[in-house]
Amino acid sequence: MRSSNRPYMASVDQLRAYAVLLVIFFHGTQIFGTWIAHDRPFQFGEDWLYSTNPAATVIFEGHTGVTLFMVLSGFIFAVGTIGKDVSYPRFMANRLLRIYPLFMVIVLIALAANPGAFGFLPFLQTVLGLGNLPGALVLGDISSGALWAVAVEMQFYLLFPLLNKLLTRFGLPTFLRLFAAIAVIRALVWFVTTVPNPDSILYYNLVGRIDQFLIGMIAAWLYLRYADHFRGWWKIGASAGIVVAALWAFNQVHGFFNHGWWRLVWVDVEGGMWALVVLTYVATVRATNVVARTVTKIGELSFSLYLLHLVIAGVLVNNRWWIEIPGIGAMASALVTVAALFLPVSIAVAMVTYHGIESPFLRLRVKYLIEPKVPIELQQLDRDLERATRSS
């Protein structure tokens, strides 16, 4: 829930914007770059992009924006609820109001266009938040590029009130032990599996992503107690530098397709470095200039942008609408296409869907924090004071 006494929310929205921009540039360079270079669709393994340029690798590994989203989810919920009781029904009602209106509109329209994809059990599985598992609806770019992440988020929502209670009641040590236990069990399963699949175990599944949500909650705990320690523009620069260096190294070893055991550690490294960015950025940034407000608005549109950007890319590709500039190469032309065409069109569409579908339902959300009960004696004292004030 957003309120005026939470000034960090603008900074959080800006981080959401950076996350969705990473994803859009990541998919855009893949899709448009392949069409410009080879005049065919992107092939997942064959056409992956690599570079020794650190700035380029941030875009080429822009799937890391999903990790930033998940760290932010843990941070946002925990920073407002640590030390407080959460009404589970109201919390889940708010989550449904946040996710389901646009989610269901997209799913139903996609099914209307592809009726052969419908099946009662796959439909039920998808709408109940298990769309990232085998047996869910297969809806082309919609399901492969976006719905899996929505499913992982929804699974985390089911667990969050309990996780928050553990962190509130027993403190950080107990929470860290839980974190370690999950990591140990996951590692055991990894090493007992003949051919472990990092995508299935770590990328598309809550059993891998849960670490990043937990890291976000730990970051919230640190922020509430030590925000001043993370404040400083140079600290933002240092944390961003860590992200760039780590993504460069990941790209050099072809990390997305590398099945080495170190992928078990990368889940936490990636989550931890983004948590450091979140901590330093939220503790430091309070900008209200035009650029900051624009980035904040993009962050507000991030859910629509995330769910719809691959559909928009498909429309552009089907009509062969991209920008090819002779002499600069396919990847440079792809970047121009993303910045000058793909991104502006995506933002324009997202503004329509946000204000037409998301915003009205967001206004229906209710407070989900349980107010502490006031003893009857204090309630009577409050009433007596109120009457005395009126009579005076």
UniProtKB/TrEMBL annotation:
The keyword Transmembrane helix applies. One of its GO terms (molecular function) is acyltransferase activity, transferring groups other than amino-acyl groups. GO terms for biological process: polysaccharide biosynthetic process. It holds the Pfam family Acyl_transf_3. Keywords: Acyltransferase, Membrane, Transferase, Transmembrane, Transmembrane helix. It comes from the Bacteria. GO terms for cellular component: membrane. The chain crosses the membrane at residues 20-38, 58-79, 99-125, 145-163, 175-195, 201-224, 233-251, 271-291, 303-322, 328-357. Residues 10-352 form the Acyltransferase domain. This is Acyltransferase.
